[in-house]
Amino acid sequence: MATNQVRTRFAPSPTGYMHVGNxxxxxxxxxxxxxxxxxxxxxxxxxxxxxLVEGATDIIYDTCRQTGLIxxxxxxxxxxxxxxxxxxxxxxxxxxxxxxxxxxxxxxxxCTPERLEQLHADQKAAGEAVxxxxxxxxxxxxxxxxxxxxxxxxxxxxQKCPTEGVTSFDDLxxxxxxxxxxxxxxxxxxxxxxxxxxxxxxxxxxxxMGITHVIRGSEYLSSTPKYNLLYQAFGWDxxxxxxxxxxxxxxxxxxxxxxGDASYQDLVAKGYLSQAVMNYILLLxxxxxxxxxxxxxxxxxKIWDPANISKSPAIFDSLKLRAINAEYIxxxxxxEFLEVAKPxxxxxVHRPVDMALLCQCLHNRCEVxxxxxxxxxxxxxxxxxxLELYQNxxxxxxxxxxxEALAALExxxxxxxxxxxxxxxxxxxxxxxxxxxxxxxxxxxxxxxLSGKNRTPGGGTEIAAYxxxxxxxxxxxxxxxxxxx
Length: 485
Description:
The protein is mostly helical. The chain is 45% helix and 9% strand. The chain is built from 20 helices and 11 strands. α9 crosses α11, α16 packs across α18 and α18 packs across α19.
């Protein structure tokens, strides 16, 4: 498919949850396409049947939709170069491999598993790199090949890499790279069962789908010379390569799905906002110009430049992710925060409360939604608490002064006609003035009496308002009894 338009693809394997590194590849591919008014393609690479996980394809669809990475062509919506599921494209790969055999760029290999095992054992004994194929079938006479094929001898098709000279390529991130051809192994293109290997299917599909920019992890840098030799053998145009640095757990260890490290689903389940996760992933190995680091997806499209991708590994920084998430939460309107916070509130609170007011109080005290329930443990069940909590130098309160304050508050609040935050506050303020005390002297003990904690969403008047009159008066009476001993 010849095109002058930028065409990128995200080609995940459905083997589980969406790893952070995979999602970054999807984001960068999406941005590269959209910044250039191009086409973003979703292709499912499911040829490794042994690693497939049931439901994983739906996870890919759902994650891309939730994060706004909407594809222009893909398995569910089709397109001009489908099918977009690799297992549905199987018939053609062997034909392409056979074309390479005819051109002398590939060959049939009849080596048995036993011979390869012995080869590897000999390599190990000799202190050589284990696993490098020795080219045993590389120059078999045509007559011998025809005889073995006619006899039904099992075979694979291997790429015939040059043994001399240099293969080079240019990468937008890593620059000009050269590899001695003597280091290249004759990789398998078609396996014994007739299925293509991942690398071969990848090259053929990318060409047929008109992919102009290949964006992937730097672990594929070493395979790229062999990819290019395939492109050249077919006479196809090379894509632009953009290899991204690895995402590391720490200085020594890569972030790994297999090791149980954070996936997109894990982060959302912990209470990180999808937009914040994507903003953070953008910055994993990519730097904007200027000081601003908070970007919507639309803003990312405008400012995207692959030249800003770093060669250095990106360390997954949980504190930075948290800070970005906190900023996103702060920027939500009260109505938006209520919508995202309510399910988390309901995990901890099973009695009637003023949900809107409670969420207003939580808004500036919340950096990760998953930490909301632990802040609200006092609402359903009043905790046991030490009377020393009433001691506060700043507010000039003691357990003795708290007894006096709460007795005054019980009288004020029991006669209050309107039960709102403002009405409660004004009544308490008037009482403090009448007693010639500061507001904190009266209200700090109220917060302790209603929650049994010295840090809560909202102060005493807010807690009273969102708990409601009945529960407030019940806890106020209980606090007075506790203070009286």
